[in-house]
Automatic annotation (TrEMBL):
It comes from Salinithrix halophila. Pathway: Amine and polyamine biosynthesis; ectoine biosynthesis; L-ectoine from L-aspartate 4-semialdehyde: step 3/3. Its EC number is 4.2.1.108. InterPro entries: Ectoine_synth (IPR010462), RmlC-like_jellyroll (IPR014710), RmlC_Cupin_sf (IPR011051). Catalyzes the circularization of gamma-N-acetyl-alpha,gamma-diaminobutyric acid (ADABA) to ectoine (1,4,5,6-tetrahydro-2-methyl-4-pyrimidine carboxylic acid), which is an excellent osmoprotectant. It comes from the Bacteria. This is L-ectoine synthase. HAMAP family: Ectoine_synth.
Amino acid sequence: MIVKHLADLVGTEDEVKGQTWESRRFLLKKDGVGFSLHDTLIKAGTTTTMWYKNHIEAVYCVQGEGEVETLDDGTVYPIKNGTLYTLNGHERHQLRAKTDMRMVCVFNPPCTGRETHDKDGAYPLLDDEKATV
């Protein structure tokens, strides 16, 4: 059994920050459960362009308001507390936060914990949980 508390992740290597987001990574590849689970904060007024070419991501909004746009077809989906979206087609997308947003994100295959978005907005596939990008 794995038991973790958010307070145990803040300020450790399991808390990763980007310009528009902060991600606290509860479950990672090293945990051996087949997916990773992240508690992610998206900053109000920001736009983040992403394209998870290597991962399927499911995102559940537990706080805040914004929208996600699929860039290939321009479809915009509103997001608020209680909304789930899944990028099961590896869609290029933009996440726009109207307010601070808190998202629970699941990635398959699991992230190692050290990934950051590359120039395409993607996470690379890392084999070693100690690898950095």
